[in-house]
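Local shape tokens:
==================
===
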Amino acid sequence: MKRTLMLSLFLTPLLLSACGTEDAPSDTSQSENVTTTTKDEWQRVGSDETVSHIHGAGFWQDDERLVIATHAGLMEYREDGWYTLPTNRHDYMGFEVVEDGFYASGHPDRRTDFKNPLGVMHGKNHGAVLESRSLEGEADFHYMSAGYATGTLYVYLEEATSELEPGFYRSIDGGKSFEPMQVQGIEEAQVAGIVADATDAERVFLYGPSDILVSNDSGDSFEPLVEAEQVVTVGADEGQLAYVRQTDGSFEGVRFNLDDESTETFNLPELQADVVPIELAVNKERMLLVTSDNSVYEFTDGEWEMRLDKGELN
């Protein structure tokens, strides 16, 4: 499949979690291009609320609480349940936790002054501080990945902006500027997602229904890393990848050691027949799995625990 045709099918599995451009629920937060909160203003979410359209997941840097990016802002899980931030309740896309905060794109809460789409945003303090880095009002990056320790961004731009044509780009300055990736070696590939290496700024991965490709030159050339496997989602941590593959109608997890290319399989939580894994985050031995029915599972102490059941907060 040539690249021009491949792009029409681009990122097929992750489209399960993408939504349209409708406005996110409103709030009364400060509506500036940099918003700040100085204390813990996270609020317990009521059991009558539901969660839809999860667009990213990870673990916060300091307290290691799990966090998800939703159609109505960020939510984090604490011992007594789910909490949400009443400010910056944007429809986040391409959400990725990094060492100094997070990166995201998407669509703004209509009660704020952010332009639609958000372009590249950098957040700090668990989302209380949000800064526009570039392309606000021009780009919505559904497919964006950032290296946890490096902050290097790798993105796919679906629609042209005033200065950029559609295609693959990288940013080495935290999303303030972008340069094109040459992406040689992907001409016959079907690409479903892009993942930045956690610690190597020049290493980036593309994955899809037949393989995982790796680039060690910032995305200019790719070669096979994992072949003949139907990969549906991938997460990166220092020295390793974790991914979910589909085999004979069922799903299996794999940890891939990037130093010696050894692998170790792991079981996934039991999923219904029509449910697909769409997000996988890794933090050492812990993992976070999001599925297409808006369920969230955490792997800790050697077993999976359900944190959100089909979007229901009970």
